[in-house]
């Protein structure tokens, strides 16, 4: 139990909780993810206020409610690519809400509800609101970029490093990042998990 808890899993308090239907084993959230959960929780509360619903516990948590919720979200947000959020953005928000709901209520939404609402976003909601299916371009490092960076590091960089070995280490890091499909935060400690020392370790790859 101590080992599991040290790795970020919450210890369940009672056997009743452990055996409860829909009980969720939860990993500690990073600061960045907590902010996103708080944000989507506030959006849902604003949605309830717009529906003049005073008591959330009296709601029927079904597909109809959540379809109204994602439509409210789509119409109350400005998109980065088009005037309204894209289908991809709304689907991401929906899955973020599903995670938030699981943590807030200690129970999961039914899988058929989750998939039904996701299908609604990609189908009827997209057609009714004319939502875009575009995604923002992700500009990856090219061979030219990598050559430029390493050439500058070894030929033009006049920074006073504590030890010249640092240039070799930086070169390795550049090559590693450029040739890995992993996120940067998986290779070195992410700022979202500052202080955890969670990253790729010796002999992992």
Distance N terminus to C terminus? Answer: 28 Å
Per DSSP, the total helix count is 9
What overall geometry do the principal axes of the alpha carbons give?
A: elongated
The string of secondary-structure elements, in order, is HHHHHHHHH
Task: Describe the model.
This protein is an all-alpha fold and 205 residues long. It has two domains: 15-129, DNA polymerase, domain 1, CATH 1.10.150; 139-204, no CATH class. 55% of the residues lie in helices and 0% in strands. Helix 7 (143-155) packs antiparallel against helix 8. The longest helix has 20 residues, at 31-50. The radius of gyration is 23 Å and the shape is elongated. Mean pLDDT is 79; it is low at 21-25.
Question: Keywords, please?
Answer:
9 helices, mainly alpha, elongated, DNA polymerase, domain 1, 205 residues
Topology (elements, then pairings):
Layout (H helix, E strand, L loop, with lengths): L1 H5 L8 H5 L11 H20 L12 H13 L11 H19 L5 H19 L13 H13 L9 H15 L4 H4 L18
Helix pairs in contact: 3-5, 4-6, 5-6, 7-8
